Amino acid sequence: MKKLLDDPADAVTDSLTGFGLAHAGLVQVHTEPVYVSRAGGPVPGKVGLVSGGGSGHEPLHAGFVGDGMLDAAVPGAVFTSPTPDQIVPAVLGADSGAGVVAIVKNYTGDVLNFETAVELVEAEGSQVATILVNDDVAVEDSLYTAGRRGVAGTVCVEKIAGAAAARGDDLGAVTEIAGRVVANVRSMGVALTACTVPHVGKPSFDLPDDEVEIGIGIHGEPGRHRIPFAGAREITRSLLDPVADDLHLAGGEDVLLFVNGMGGTPLSELYVVYGRARGLLEERGVTVSRSLVGNYVTSLEMQGASITLLRLDDELRELWDAPVRTAALHW
Amino acid sequence: MKKLLDDPADAVTDSLTGFGLAHAGLVQVHTEPVYVSRAGGPVPGKVGLVSGGGSGHEPLHAGFVGDGMLDAAVPGAVFTSPTPDQIVPAVLGADSGAGVVAIVKNYTGDVLNFETAVELVEAEGSQVATILVNDDVAVEDSLYTAGRRGVAGTVCVEKIAGAAAARGDDLGAVTEIAGRVVANVRSMGVALTACTVPHVGKPSFDLPDDEVEIGIGIHGEPGRHRIPFAGAREITRSLLDPVADDLHLAGGEDVLLFVNGMGGTPLSELYVVYGRARGLLEERGVTVSRSLVGNYVTSLEMQGASITLLRLDDELRELWDAPVRTAALHW
Questions:
Q1: pLDDT band per the 50, 70, 90 thresholds, residue B145
Q2: What is the third-level CATH fold of B9-183?
Q3: A59 at the B interface (CB within 8 A)?
Q4: What is chain B's mean pLDDT, rounded?
Q5: Alpha-carbon span A98 to A95, nearest angstrom
Q6: Cross-chain residue pair A18–B275, CB shorter than 8 Å
Q7: Which domain of life is it from (chains A, B) (predicted)?
Q8: A12-183: CATH topology
Q9: pLDDT band, residue A222 (cuts 50/70/90)
Q10: Structural domain boundaries of chain B?
Q11: What is the DSSP secondary structure assignment for residue A267, as one 8-state letter?
């Protein structure tokens, strides 16, 4: 295993230390316990937004801490849920008195640890609403979940709920908006190669040179099936059709199309997939008015991509467009 | 070879088509011949900025077309120089009458083809100044160059010259600023794995599982030497020391530290390298006042990274900070 790391046991903290130094104007990295908060602390009167989950999906979530998005992020060990003792100070620190929305990807460990943390935080007098993200249409239950997994759609939830909080919505309103995104966002991914967890030192699974895994999870969990590799057009269709069908997308509707890289795939290939997806959506009479293409919810160095569609309405579109200033999203 | 492409012969145009659709507000993609220009055409009275080179380094250069950076980018085939017939319309289209600066990475093919194109353009009455970028300290001459190669420092040249043009500097002043960046920027890279050119279909070189290539070029050209893999700390030192020494960096000086990913390395590892580089610069008494971390000048899916240092002065710092709105850099 060759990785730009030293002791694999320090992979997460070494990376966060560099991240904190590179973005000192945006974030503060805490180490005991580990979490990342917005530089300057919570904004008075604003609803706080906190997310978290296993590391290995960078820039998710720490890359989305900043103006117009998250107030704190809680990174666990690689592909491992953060613990309640990390989540509690992150949530308390994000609460300026207006309450906190916790955005949790639907994995059993994340859900349980956030539940425990929220109970402890509420005992301190903070109000917390939890939003579960479960956008992955690939499988109903999986290795680490009851119900669908939360994947790249999480970026849409964090961006749009973050904008709602930034414009001054109260806890109920931010929660409603976040829920509306969850209800209208779906994703599915493909793996061309496996990834290697640093402290394991070998690839998470075997994938033959001529096959891809459709419906892969962001931890390399099994997907729907393996198919012979047959080019971008066919792979794009095998991802886009289930996503669009699950959303019951109709002609005339407007979506955000998000092509996400798994970490090891060149940006140029993500744009090929984006172009193919645009063609398929055009065939359905669906308009794409907003786009995002890049590596935002990754699986270490896995090669592959996911397609996310978010059904837009005027308010979601306006909140997506609202200014954001974080390490990974900035406009 | 598994890549998210269809016919490898169409890799560049398929990717550019997707890029153009995803960023329709920023860029216009031309196909006969292939080049990318800023949406809305050149800004009246502003010096035009054009760059180009082989594809496979995305987001370089098309990802830097937009407000505050390039007016046009000319992508060749993968790892192949663009031809004069592509460069000519890109340069002519970028000229609002104030002249054009052509930013060319120092590779023999790029230099020759830009020279030919500039002669043709000048015959049409446009004034063009050419800036050669040769920031790679790894080797003096190499597979594709006389003199040093141009690598990730190109992003610094394009950003800062772009800001100078945007604030209204004339052709001479933009050229002077671009030259000042070239004189003060140095880079060196490492490969952990090779990459595969789509129309070749097999890795460009062999690299054993326990070795890395120090001083690699962005096309997989040989570097200085191979060393046993020994972790991020040692690799960072083997890149940073030659770069800082070549710049004759002295204690008390201020730099931009840019850790660039080669495409297949997780962002989390780039932050580890960034943190290690910060430590080494601190030992030298050098201040890091500006930072950039991410995949900006890539080699397809190669795993590895490069370190770039730019010696800053007040004007370069101000121009780096100036607003930019492109697909790949936005603040």
A1: confident
A2: Rossmann fold (3.40.50)
A3: yes
A4: 96
A5: 6
A6: yes
A7: Bacteria
A8: Rossmann fold (3.40.50)
A9: confident
A10: 9-183, 185-320
A11: H
